[in-house]
Amino acid sequence: MFKKIQNLIFAILFVVVIAGPMISWGVLSIVNIVNPSIMETLDFDLNEKRSKATMSEIIDLSIITYEAENYYNDRLPYRSLLINFKRYLDAKLEEPYKNKIEAMLLKIFSKRKNAEGLDDTDENISNEMFMEDAVEKYLNHGLYKEEIDPYDDTIEFPIKYLNNPRVIVGQSDWLYLNENNIAYYQGINKISSESEIKKHVEPYVRLKRMCDIVGKRLVILICPEKEEIYPEYMPTMEIKDYVEVPIDIREYVKANTDVTYIYPKEELLKHKKNYLVYKKYDSHWNAIGGFIAANEIKKALGLPTTSLRDMKLKKVPTMDADLAFYGNTSVENLPMTFKYVFENYKPTHIVERVFAKNPVTLDSFTTHCEQGFNRKVFLIGDSFREALQEFIIKDFKELYCNTYTNATDGFIREEVKRADDIVITLVERNEGIVLPQLCDIIYNILGEYKNDIDSFLRQNH
User: Fold this and answer.
1) ∠196-197-202 over CA atoms, to 5°?
2) Buried-most residue among 179, 254, 294, 377 (CB within 10 A)?
3) 373-381 and 421-427 as β-strands: parallel, antiparallel, unpaired?
4) pTM of the model
């Protein structure tokens, strides 16, 4: 008798566990018709850069169970709450590791490293000698240098004050710019045919040929959008499948042209494990992102680079939050954020900065550095250029820095002609329209330069 009662209780519990969530979810869905706020609380967006699983219109018995499982998992009752709770538990479990265990492991491995006579700057350290994650953090992480954890963020942003469709509020109060970059992120505005891409990149190819003719090097650097590096904080959005966007413009340029074209997404993703590389409340990358991009430019120009792990970093309070301004947040409501300061980036190099007089703008200036390489570099781009330019002004005798908005009035003519190297930096959302036009403008200036050279040679032949 007792065994039967026990089995009955187990059966009832099994039915409750299996059917209970579905029944209660159905009831809440009905109540939601009267009070929509219920489902907004229970079924909120997660940080998934993908579309929910669907069932094929044509039944295929070989995959139907797999499709059905994925379809159900994406529509599981209380799914958002369960996943969010799991993240909360993971974060709580990670805290003692980050605060205690990780520091102990780093000490152990650093002692082992010193005992085996390896120098901090040794580029040939074998990963087999250390745990992979411990080595990565040993080489790059600010904690080893007894500095503030780059991931530490206790700022509470006043979301209630945001009131502008230009700004997207993501997970953990991360802010994103809501412009044409979002359509690109979703795969809507991506160029998908080879003929379109070929037409789009033709100005790049023409400019490269002209640079080769007049003896100048060309480097094009496209800065990834913030949501490409930190998609985990974005709200859930419908993303086009790769099959719908089969051709990537960047892969096409690298495979089919000789243009030096840099898209440092992989480098940024690699370093974001140990550093913040973009600003949480701003659309731009920070000094770390700029440093990484500057290194990629120097590599492309055949120049030595400085390792990020050799830099001494410090976090200082700042008010970098352009998206907060876009969100119509008053100054007193802006969050206090932080920035990285590089305390030992070529401190002995003295830089003279001369600002342009016509037009008067802080975006147009020339720097001189006697300790730099004997090259003259013309650097033009948008606001993403600002973070990286600080890490190349000490590397060249002369650097001509300008914004692309000055390119239409001929203000850059003499700078382009004097330069040995031409570097263009633009964020993804500006690539489609600005880059082809900018290439054409510089191409025409170099055409004038070529004619000047030809005329001089004819007169002195």
Assistant:
1) 105
2) 377
3) parallel
4) 0.67
